[in-house]
Amino acid sequence: MPAILMVNGPNLGILGRREPEVYGTATLFDIEQAIEKELAERGWDLVSVQRESEGELIKSIQEHYYTVGAIVNPGALMINGWGLRDALASYPRPWIEVHLSNVWAREQFRHESVLAPLANGVIVGMGALGYPLAARALLNMTPAAV
Predict the structure, then answer these.
(1) 38 pLDDT band (50/70/90 cuts)?
(2) Hey, which CATH number is domain 3-141, 3.90.550.10, 3.40.50.9100, 3.40.190.10, 3.40.50.150?
(3) Known catalytic residue: 23?
(4) Which region holds residue 70: left if phi is over 0, alpha if psi is between -120 and 50, else beta?
(5) Spatial separation of the C-alpha atoms in residues 118 and 95, rounded to whole Å
(6) What average pLDDT does the chain have?
(7) Active site residue: 23, 64, 91, 131, which one?
(8) Which residues does the entry assign to the active site, renumbered to this chain (predicted)?
(9) What is the per-residue pLDDT across 39-56, written as a single tens digit (0 to 9) for each?
(10) DSSP H stretches of helix in the chain
């Protein structure tokens, strides 16, 4: 059965507890359920990966080349995750970069993503809603018969 890969980087495993005034109160489990709801209409699965280190994220992407698309929230690795960038450059399917907060309304160092130029799209500042929006975009970008 086709599957969408969701990759979450450092510190995103503690969503719901981590600075809720910035990142909201939804947990990663809540976000997974929202994405699964979006994918259900097509009968697709979700493969969810959250890792604290860049190397583990790279390995996860390489192990999931069979997926039909990806939702990627690299967290702070958006700033200097060059190894992650290389892994995503060779990922053979469309992918969307997602950030819960509006990174351009925050500190200057968050204003540039080394990954975004490779992404098929970027969603920022929509909170947990950004993830199912990315899933909806991937559904529209990917033929039903994959």
Answers:
(1) very high
(2) 3.40.50.9100
(3) yes
(4) beta
(5) 9
(6) 91
(7) 23
(8) 23 (proton acceptor), 99 (proton donor)
(9) 998 999 999 999 999 999
(10) 20-23, 28-40, 54-63, 77-80, 82-89, 130-141
Interatomic CA distance for residues 109 and 72, integer angstroms: 19
Would you place residue 119 in the very low, low, confident or very high pLDDT band (cuts 50, 70, 90)?
very high
How large is the average pLDDT for residues 122-138? 95
CA angle 118–35–61, rounded 5-degree value = 40
- 3-class secondary-structure state, position 103: helix
Catalytic residue among 64, 65, 66, 99: 99
Q: For residue 113, give the nearest of 87, 80, 90 by alpha carbon.
A: 80
Amino acid residing at 44: W
Query: Binding site residues, as ranges?
Result: 73, 86, 100-101, 110
Q: Which two tokens stand for residue 21?
A: 């005034």
Q: How far apart are the first and last CA of the chain?
A: 9
DSSP 40-78: HTTT-EEEEEE-SSHHHHHHHHHHTTTSSEEEEE-TTHH
Active site residue 99: yes
